[in-house]
Amino acid sequence: MPLDVEKIIQFIKQGDQDNVQIHLDDYNSQYSQCFFFDVEERERRKQRELDEFRMNKVREYVPDSDSDLDFDENEDPDLILRRRLAAALILFIRMRLQPGVLRVCLRTLRIISRDRKALAPLITDYAILTLARLGGISTLPTWPEEEAAQWGSTHSDITPENETETRPENDDSNTQSPTCYSETDDSVFASAACAESSVSEGCLQFNPVNLTSNCNTEAQNDHHAESVRKDGACGVLMRGKRDARGEKDEEGHDDGEIWRKEAIKALCNVIYNSPKAQERASTLKLLPGLTEKLKEGIHSSSPPIGQFYELRFLFLLTALRPELRIELHQERGVSMLTAALEQCLEVCWGETHEVLTDLTAPPVCEEVSQRALEILKILFNITYNVHRQEVDEETAALYRHLAAVLRHCLLVNCEGEERKDELQGHTVNVLSALPLQCLDVLLSVRLSEGSKESSGVNMDCVHSLLLFMEKRLDRGHKPKEKLTPVLNLLMESSKAHRETRHYLRQQILPPLRDVELRPEQGNTLRSRLVRLMTHVDTDIKQCAAELLFVLCKENVSRFVKYTGYGNAAGLLAERGLLKGHGPSPQQQYSSDSDSDTEEYRQAKARINPVTGRVEEEQPDPMEGMTEEEKEAEALNLINIFNRLSRDRIIQPVGVTTDGKLAPLCGQMSHCAVDEEEEEEEEDESETEQ
Question: What is the pTM of this model?
Fold first, then answer.
């Protein structure tokens, strides 16, 4: 039986809390799994257009995508009702409500906030600040009582988010504005009489902050779900992805904590779905209040139950607003988030920059790992470009402290391999953003029983990164964003630390024994990385090639030996090393030699340097041919290449003096001119005779 939303709105206007709770409970149960409210209407619209096509056999316009099927909002009364319900609830939650009623109202607002088209009442300063206050964010602006705006009960009175906002003139009717929040009262309410007088029949009055009076509404992108930060600080935010935490049992939890969590969840939806709300959140200074609330949780004995959503809210703000990333970084956000990560994982410190990791301890539970993931994502947002900057001694100490905690994140166990892989992935992202000189703490840990070591240095962290890279190599899904961070991190660490390079070389490039297979054939780490050297994605190709090149100490002959000249040619050409120059003078490597195995020495003379393996002997194709026939074949081959070059099918290139490839167009054109001149001279001599 469909719910009567109009009746719910009437109960809200009357202040009937019991009926509001009963009917909103039914509403929430019906739409708890609904993330896109207009799916059924879209299908009906498609069916109507199909019926019209079959009837008329002609259509003026064929839509190319679902976005073109967005129907006229006047045809969707459910959308209008959702907007009116959201506007009524925003006022209603300012009243002195019973905890259960407030909770169910906020849950309804959270469900409605999933619908981008119904966000108009929720993207005003009044609504954003109301939800923020209910979410426990106290350091916020207050509302001037003299300001008022109207949200009518008809569709014409509600401005869609993707249109320019126009504020109706203030009504002269005797309606009283709701009481503003008190600076000293944490309970968010207005007097019942005041609220009832402000919720009149057919018109809802509430007070926005005057900051938006001169602001134009931002244009809403229909494909906002696919928006990507151009500076690379963040990945794609997938719209409509369900919260992995699910609807957990809330019995036994404090009612205040529950509705604070619901308010933050609704605010997350609003900020995520609306560019205008993102801009207003930045202007209204939600970030300082949010960070203060997080600091209170960090210094408490146990974090509040809603801290995950506070972290998610902070992640959205830093991911979607570049100025907030800078602000949080300048306000010592790295230090605060590092402390939050320590509290989350219950870090125990040993000596300087050494976290004691007990590998026999129980795995980290799902709830803790989810909070840690949000912290790591925020840390990456505010530190993604730090590795390009020069840092002073104090800042370097801060990043070394963070790197020590991140080392613990790499080694700690989680419930489920997928969760552990996700935690390690975000940890690698943050490590790759930190200054390289601050990563020495990853190796400065005492050896213990069962530790991996290289030249007396603890390699447990490097071994964990190696295993993580191997797991990512086995998965073909999104290889660029999954592989490039760990490949870059291992390459840079190998450059900076001799022990890391030596250990990785033993694991990835052991002494050659089987020279019957091509380097890219097989399932070893070397073969899988060599296969990436010819990947279609240039970033992956370059990262894999540079890692192997560094492990070969940038020695061209050794690099060709392990990868084959055909696979190595791309990197060598880019670096101008096709003539076999050694490592760059800026990079200093140890002088240990590359000892060959007995199997390699015996087969070395028969190895094809291009393919990197022993090739079967092929018969001579010119055997039995006379010298004249060989010359004719050679001339025929030259003519074929000339024709392909003239038709621009191929472009002949050669190696220049600086070891790079350069086109031979100029040389070929000179040769062609010389041949034409010789032919003309021969013709002239024949004519004279």
Answer: 0.75
